[in-house]
Structures are given as structure tokens and as C-alpha cells.
User: What shape does this take?
Amino acid sequence: KEHTELFGEFLPPEEVEQKETVTIICPIYNEFPAIISCLIMQTNKNWKLWLIHNGPSDGSGETYVNLVNDDRISWQETPTHTGNWGHKTRRDYLQKVQSKYVMITNPDNYYVPSFIEKCLKQFTIKGTTVAVYSEQIIHNYTDWKVMNCRPARGFIDCGSVVMKTKEVQEVGWNNITDHSADRLFFADIINRYGVLKFVPVKGCLFVHN
Assistant: This one.
């Protein structure tokens, strides 16, 4: 008891990982937020989902979020619709994140239940890691075939990557007009920190719809 009062409670590694919050930035535009169900099933429960509607909405998405009634999920709307695949939203909201880790995704993506748990565990193995990604994904662009990933344009999807917030905020999301702005974002991170700071997690943990 005296030790706990002086130094705080000692927790096993898996519980320490549970305390590290991941903020999930998810631009949305007139879509159903299907991502909610797979996040609720995550084995690591310490996440926050920001659903950010690109412009005023018809209210249906917010109504669904209210019905789910989960304090980890917030619905926000930007004043105007900017288009460009929501990249301006990604750029602006990335700088608002205060949690240790951040992920940028889409409302119809799917994650296996252990995705967040496995990614955060990888950060503890090598403390200098900046980004962790699923080494394999299933992607609609490849007609739902399993795709081997690496941190190079055309071989990685933004939604399958968890990043250290402070480090990637320093880099910034610098392109909002190119459809592949996420790959350019990763290229900027690699240019700053080096490709070895992008570390894969074994398994096929993510589906891009």
C-alpha cells in the first residue's frame, strides 16, 4: 500500500497498453458509419472515434451515433463541404489530437478485434517506432485479394496504420488535393524519420471497403 501511494500502481504490460488511447480520425460524407461495430469489438477498449462529417449533414448519422450511446464516439460537422476525399478534414483534425497515438481511416473500413491491441504491443517492442501497420490487408482495389504491404506508395493503406501523434503532427498532412494524399503523407513521415521507423504487425488485420 505504501509503495502504491508513493509510486502509483504497477500494471502488467497488457494493462499499460490498455491505458494508451488511440484517437481515430474518420471523415465521413453521407455514409453509414459501419466502422463503429468493429471498433466496439476491439480487445483494447481505450480508443476514441471522431466521426467528422464533411459539411452539414441530414442528421441521420448523428442519430445513429446517439443510439449507439458510446462516450468514446463523437459526431462533428465542418461548416462547409470541401470535397477532395476529406483530406482537408484529415489535415485539420490531425493537429487537434491530444492522445499518444492516432489513426486516420474511413467509415466503411473493417478491423479484426485484436487490431489495436497488436499495434500498440508492437510500439512497446521498439520504443523508437513511429508507425505500425498490418503486414497484410484485404483491399477492394485488388478485388478483395490479400495484399502484402510495405511503406511505399501503392502498397499501404492509411486506415491500416497506427502512428505516434506527436511525431506525425510535426510532419503534418501536407497535401489535400491528390487522391493519394495518404501515401504522400507516409512518404513525408519516412523522409523525416526513416523507413525503419515503419514497423509491420504480422497478420491480415484490416479490410478496406
